[in-house]
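Ticket #4471: structure export looks truncated?
Reporter: QA, pipeline team
Priority: medium

Steps to reproduce: submit the single chain below to the structure queue and open the exported record.
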Amino acid sequence: MGNVIRVLYVDDEPSLLNIARLFLEKSGGFAVGTAESAREALNSHDIPSYDAIVADYQMPEMDGIELLKVVRKQFGDIPFILFTGRGREEVVIAAINNGADFYLQKGGDPRAQFAELAHKVQQAVRRKKTEALLRESEEKYRMLVEHSRDGVFIVQDGRLVFYNNALTGLSGYSPRELEGMQLADLIAPEDREMILARLKERAEGRTAPDRYEFSLLHKDGITRSRMRVSTYLGTYQGLPASFGTFYDVTADRKREEALRESEKKYRTILENIQDVYYRTDLDGNLLMFSPSGYRLFGFDPGESVVGLNIAKTLYANPEDRGRLLDVIRENGSVQNYEVRLRHRSGDIITVSASSHFYYDPEGRIAGIEGIFHDVTEKKRSEEALQRSENLYRTVFENTGTATILIGPDTTILKANAEWEKLTGIPLAAQENIMSWTRFIHPDDQERMKEYHYARRKDSAAAPTVYECRLVDAAGGIHNGFVHVGLIPGTGNSIASLVDVTALTQAHEALKASDIKIREILDHLPDIIVVHREGTILYVNPAMSESMGWLPDEVLGQPILKFVSPKDHATVKNAVRLRLESGIDKPYILDLLSRDGKPLTVSVRGTLVTISGSPAIMNILTDITTVKNAERALEESEKKYRMLVENINDIVYTADLSGTITSISPQIGRYGYSPAEIVSTNLASFIQEEDLPVVIADFEKTVSTGKPTRTVFRVRDRTGTTHWFEDNGTAITDASGNVVGISGILRDITDRMKAEDALRHANRQLNLLGGITRHDILNKVSVILGYLEIAKESVKDPEMDGYLEKIESATRAIREQIEFMRLFRDIGTRAPEWVSLDSALPRKHIPGTIDFHAEAREIEILADPMVERVFYNLLDNSVRHGERVSAIRVSAQSSGDSLVIVWEDNGVGIAYREKERIFDRGVGKNTGLGLFLAREILSLTGITLRETGEPGTGAQFEITVPRDNFRIKGNYS
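Actual output as written to the record:
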């Protein structure tokens, strides 16, 4: 009994319980317990002892889905198979969503049906045992991986699909943030291209290193950790993936890098140092000498100086080395200790020595090491500068202009009091510290530097007097004239600056003012006209743009030449009032354009003085468009008022709070006058249970500006309820901001009553039909089951014939009932937008048929059962095509319609059969498939016809009307 599977079968049909038990136990390996209701099964308290549960769907009190929910809640994951005659899609979905292991539909050959049931039970039980073992194995694996110090990861299509805790700690990301993250986002930019290239090479089967290093980028975008990674290819959840482990080698690499960097710096410094590094033993014999020492003392780079005695070879006075050693012994080191050494040629070199003892590994003094800094030229320069400085100090300090002495490297060597006053920085902070470029305006610096360096190559290569701008310590800008000259024999220059800022600023301000006034006048959209005693003195370019007259055609002409005769008196009166009393009252007049087009302007004027005499400046604003718009608006409002007052529907407007601001007279049919409704909130008339939907649509229109269609109930003055359909649109202001709602209310009470009555009748008919079909199909299954047993028991050939006929008639009854179920569902739900590609029966295509479809961007508006259409077309090709090896689906425009073509390469359909195949009952099988397909499509105006050539294959054309299809990218 250890291998026997204990099964509990629950069904409200006792006959089916007996048939199932007979077939399952007869097949061997099963022990079947039964219950006639879900309650009986639950009350028995034996469910935990069963290996699997088989249950019908439609049962009294508690159906199969409800039983499944209780089993899952109370008894966990016991394998559960739903075995029912109810084939509706929603039943299948509910079963899967609530944890059913399999869904099996009753009907068909009893032997095959119960053999399939036995197979499903065995499969479910085996799967449960396997899953338990797998969970245990995975738990051990997870413990090992999650607590490993090394990182573990899996990558598919460039994204992380698995990782352990080590990666979260190193990257700074939380597990939720890492889920699905692109691997590239965790790799430092400098390594990203290399890593991704290797992943691609490995995925394409090419050879790539499986061990390498890269820098892991922390969440902060800055911190990097150096990783040593090992990778290999495999599969994860059935798909190719890259597996990897990594180890943090950041500390190791930092140590190695620090050592390399230290050695590199030491070598670079030693080879490039301008000062001389040396090391000697205690007797003064050279052990190490930097390359700069060869240059300083005149040694040939190819000869060796190691072993030379420094006191005898380099010191001008050998006793000086003894005195140096005494100071080192006393202080431990010397800093900037001046020593006189000798060049190989015999010349004296003055150096500044910084030296100290160095020690051997045992801590004993091993010798002397240090730096010689050549100060020979500095000493000479100091002496020369001291001599020359006395010559010009008096002139320099007492000149009346800001003056500075500049060194070859742009350093300010000396500055006078006038320069300090001009720059605002004490001389002590400038001299021998700052560059003169610190005070030059950025836009002038490059030019000034070019002069500075060119002057030192050739004194005539740069001007001696030029302009530049100086920036003081407070940021103030000074315009100045600079006088510069070289001091002979020194490489230094002396410069003085005369500040002309005030004069320059006055000139620039005047020029800027003129330019600004001209730019304003030239770019004003209004027409500016200046006239004296009626003669035009000035016009701006706007007159040419607006009226077509050129300035030369206008200047010197009387202003009335360009004014409509009807407005001459108005102009004369306005001129008189301005001149006599200064009254400036705006007025409107019509101008005469060159092309004769009317131009209406608003005129404003003021008195001005031109060349010492009074004149009038007029500003003319074009209001032609505004006047035309006002007239058009007045005409539009008149038409709108007539429309609103005469249509049958109610037109209203409301503000953002829902308060009604206007309503058409048709509201009187419901006992209210427009005056009673205006200033009342919409919500006060709507039934309370409909308010949430109305408010939601109202807020949607206000927030998005998109129109909405809302259905709700309203009470009239007598309390009678009416159904209304409201088509609401947003009202916007000139800036596009929503300021209210405009709506059209249509009374749909009679339509809603009719729809309710129709829905109620359909619900009653479907309920009755469903119960009847379920009961009949159960009886049919019992008959077929007992017929199967009877055929095994009866040996009389004549009786066998009778049983075959009974079985054939019974199967025909079942097929008719199945068709009734399918036909019942047609048209019961509203049409939907369905992706053509998703409706194709790809999973049902036999392996012997090559299926090709070009329909990925197309959607059609059809009955939700449209998938059945394409399934029936596939069934027709497979059953009747005889030799079909290829099926192709395509779509193309034909006028305003879309034609979808289904074609195969089978034997095709004879001409006389092309229309008959769509009749009910015609065909080699049930005769219902193509009839049903045409009925489903006709619900949304879609047609189906066969247009293939007999002998070359069947071809079905589905023609979709213009409004029933759309192509992605052509709609929002």
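Status: closed, not a bug. The export was complete when the record was re-opened. Leaving a note from the reviewer for reference: The first strand starts at residue 5 and ends at 10.
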